[in-house]
Amino acid sequence: MKRSTLIFSFLLIPVDMAMIILAFILSYKFRLYFEIVPALYIEPFKEYIKFVFLTLPGWLIVFALSGLYSISERTRPLQQFGKIFVASTAAIAIVMAWIFLSRTFFFSRLIIAFSWILSIITVAAGRYLMRNIEIFCYRFGIGIHRVIVLSGGGSAKLIVAEIRRNQKLGYRLVKIINAEAIDKLTQILKRNPADEMIIANATLGEKQIFKVLEFCRHNHLGFKMTPNAFLLQSSHVDIQQLAGMPILEFKRTPLDGWGKIIKRLVDLLGSLILLIIFSPVIVIVAILVKLTSRGPIFFCQERVGLEKNFIFYKFRTMREDAWKEHSKLMKKHGLMFKLKKDPRLSPVGGFLRRTSLDELPQFWNVLRGNMSLIGPRPPMPEEVAHYNNFQKKRLGVKPGITGLWQVSGRSDLSFDEWVRLDAYYIENWSLWLDFQIILKTAWVVIKGRGAY
Description:
Layout: H1 3-33, H2 45-65, H3 77-102, H4 109-138, E1 145-150, H5 154-165, E2 171-177, H6 185-191, E3 196-199, H7 206-218, E4 222-225, H8 229-233, E5 237-242, E6 245-250, H9 258-277, H10 279-292, E7 298-304, E8 309-315, H11 326-333, H12 349-355, H13 362-368, E9 372-374, H14 381-384, E10 400-402, H15 404-407, H16 415-427, H17 431-447
């Protein structure tokens, strides 16, 4: 790893800190100068800034967990902005929780809103500035990675063309070699000093790959290679040791390990905040359900979860005895069916389903840990009894209130399409993917597409 790369990566920490502080200062000033809504009380600036400094470690931890300080990963501007958006949103949610739990009352809601928006803008601006400084340094050879490419096949041509075309990558191509030159690497490196070697030959034998890898280790060169077909299909790989031997662990999902912890924290904060926000709506819907049909307010049913079954909550949208007809309809319409004109609906049931208001009690399932905000739809035990091995793959994570199935057609999709979308989500989970699903869910709910 070049020293300049480490320096620029390290400098992101103080730059982010400065940008977060700037966002909070601007938010405070905006609240004072733009008196949109009168504030009952705002803490003196000196006390306010102390609180901001106390929250900074939390921001940096969230940023680190979101991959914003990854040294090896070079993300595109839009991807980085997405990570900044997600990380800043998570950090401001933690600040809000702290304010709520510590009963700190000096913040107006406008200051929090301003801080959230401005932190995204200032952090993105700070990183954009740092990235352009780094690219500017490339012109003078500072931070440039000198690369030797071991070519073979069409992939090598694409890599070489991209290195030559895109100067923002910070690569300088010093030599292109083929497999026959592996035995002459020592002489080649002496004549062409380099920092990295890239193997762009997916057909290269295992012995040859190890020979190049050992050469790179002995000469302190970075080593990269294009994957073969097997590794390309196995994107979640960890290297461990067993009996002193290295072994590869192929993870089934990024939700193993830290991903699981981060997702649970997001679920806890998100469900708590949403329950508070929607509490008036929940009360109104409960009254409507009770007044318009006989039976309980909530529909409670056993569903299959990640490790054990749980009781699933919704507002009741059907007649009290609707469950008696389910087995017969499942035989006729298949697993996990939904009917556009379901004869079992209550007077307000159709409206609640079209607006997705019947789903609101599921935030309680999320808070309890039975469900996640985003994931596969929770099936009933009698449905799971008919699953084949591939379909059981959707049971590998916690079920969710919404998911890829929700934003890709909802009830208009076939069950096989649901399973494929769930499998994709499990294998490719990220906070950025969750954020996109949340945005798309809001749009789908507003349009009412596939909701019945």
